[in-house]
Amino acid sequence: MTGVVLAATVGALFALGTFLLLRRDLIRVVWGLAIISQAANVYLLAMAGIAPATADSVPILAGHGENVPVTADPLVQALVLTAIVIGFGMTAFALVLSYRVYEEHDTLDVTELGDRE
Amino acid sequence: MTMTTTTAMPVGTESQLVIAPMLIVLAAAVGSLLLGRHPRTRAAVSLAAGAAYAVAVAAIDWYIVLAPDAPGIATYQVGDWPAPFGITLVADGLSAFMLTMVAVLGVASLVFSTRHLPGGEGRSYYFPLFHFLALGVTGAFLTGDLFNLFVWFEVMLMASYVFVAYSGGPQHTRAAFWYVTLNLLASAVFLLGVGGIYATTGTLNMADLAQRLADPAAYGLEPVPVVGLLGLLLSVFAIKAGLVPFQFWIPTAYRAAPPQITALLAGATKKVGIYAIIRLSFTVFAGAEVAVDLQLPVLDAAIAGESPLPFVGTALFLMAAASILVGGIGAVGRDSMEGVFAYSSIGQVGFIAIPVAIAATTIDPTLRQFAIVAALVYALNHTLAKGLLFLAVGTVRAATGTSRFADLGGMAKRSPPLAIAVFVGSLALVGIPPLSGFFGKFLVFDAAARARAGPVIVLLLVGSLLTIAYATRLWNQSFWGAETDAVETATVDSVQVIVLVVLAAAIVTVGVGFDPVYEFAETAAEAALDTEGYVDAVDPTEPSELAPSSGGDH
């Protein structure tokens, strides 16, 4: 059941992100990017499996002996943490860039930007 | 049996060499950032770091790959964690070959940059960003881990985003915005591929991955989804390499970035895409036993057996063919120097991808290795020639303030050495002997002929004719004819011209003394195909082999 919910959430996030990415307003495009990168993070987290894991199913836990409690796969969490940080920086950069586009073109509308070539 | 597998591996000089180039550029990036207020010291530190980087890469080339008693491959386990758990850096022939190209072009571009820094307020960040770009490229070539490949891609891209937006101006900002958007989207797709591969195989270490895919039954995994995931990754790498249909960002981004950075974008970061395709397809995924029923009639070579390679080959072939045509035809119609070279870059990367596609579809191991050699030699030629030509655009722009054909003409009279260097670079693109381009093109044609792929040869011929057309047109429009006003008042920077002449000399030297270059490329191709050697060197420990007590060590 959790799996279905998770899959639906990831799918919905991707759909929303794509929808925003195709808007004319640059800020919405940045929002779309941010949502898509979060969707990728949730997906990555889900890829470790959502059932409780033990030393048998998680390779990195096997190296730590018998006394491993039932826990989630720590590897994907480390990966997602890295991905979140990167995605965060990128979103900030995209926002700053759209602000500069606004300063230089006086508009955030994609079609108007295209007309001015 | 405790952690003998790790402690038995000596942390020798070779092992430390692997990480040396990365440490050097990282230190240079931080150092030049701190020296923001001292432009001269900053430039000097950057140049010294560039030289040190070149020395470190040369040491890797010699002590790890080329010396008679060299091991051929060396690894560095960060923090001394054993392989599938820790971060592994691997230097083998293929990485070394790629690093060498970056080192040569990077030093040329650095020397060039000390003469003329583009941009106003952002100037003090130029060198730190340059080093971060180099750090990302170096990390991508050396990493032995799929997720770290993603991280290094991001490091490289972050620097390149800023460079594309660097010069300011409405056009450039807009180009940068689309460039950033496209690449962020690609990063998300990259993560999807990485996550899927982790879910399918339970590992992200490339050596461990290769080992598991070669024997899926022993690890209880189902390798079929790997083909689709490889397809996802392939599209990401194709974006970096600028293969059609992912080429649309190239012309605007290349026009927006400063010329000396465009030289690096075309010469180095593009090659990261090619490198990743070769490394993942041949070293990592080649052994996966998956039946792929996908054949192109034009590639007559027998399709590689049960492996995802035919899929890679077919996809690459289609993209490469389209790239050659789109790039060539696009380049003929441009009205500025960098426009021509940007489109030419799209076409030339097709010439690199064609032999890779041939290597992926053939089952003949000799032809496979030969085709990869052809791709590598062509990539080397493209790095040298296109690097030279983009730097020449910088010189022309710095001297005349323009690079549009309408305002240029008679540059040959104004600065003969500059004209000769550009002439040599253009001839190398066309493929005239005895330049490096001749061997590149010859080997690509030879690989197509050996694969008995007639239509491919026709395609390559068309591409070559288009190259001749735009190279001639560019030469006639900007270097021949009467001097325009802009050219008459131009003062050409002598140091920049010296850099160009040195690069032109390098193109001639590679062409004349081709044997060692060919041998190096051959070693690189061998390394790319030697999955077993790669796995042995990285030596991924099995979880079951780790004794329970070993966990306490950390």
From TrEMBL, chain A:
It comes from the Archaea. The keyword Membrane applies. Keywords: Cell membrane, Membrane, Transmembrane, Transmembrane helix. InterPro entries: CPA3_antiporter_subunitC (IPR050601), NUOK/Mnh_C1-like (IPR039428). It is a multi-pass membrane protein. This is NADH-quinone oxidoreductase subunit K. The keyword Nucleotide-binding does not apply. GO terms for cellular component: plasma membrane. It is found in: Cell membrane. The chain crosses the membrane at residues 6-22, 29-55, 75-97.
Automatic annotation (TrEMBL), chain B:
It is found in: Cell membrane. GO terms for cellular component: plasma membrane. The chain crosses the membrane at residues 17-36, 43-65, 85-112, 124-143, 149-169, 176-199, 226-251, 272-291, 311-333, 340-360, 418-444, 456-475, 495-514. It comes from Natrinema longum. Keywords: Cell membrane, Membrane, Transmembrane, Transmembrane helix. This is Na+/H+ antiporter subunit D. It comes from the Archaea. One of its GO terms (molecular function) is NADH dehydrogenase (ubiquinone) activity. GO terms for biological process: ATP synthesis coupled electron transport. It is a multi-pass membrane protein. InterPro entries: CPA3_Na-H_Antiporter_D, NADH_UbQ_OxRdtase, ND/Mrp_TM. Residues 144-467 form the NADH:quinone oxidoreductase/Mrp antiporter transmembrane domain.
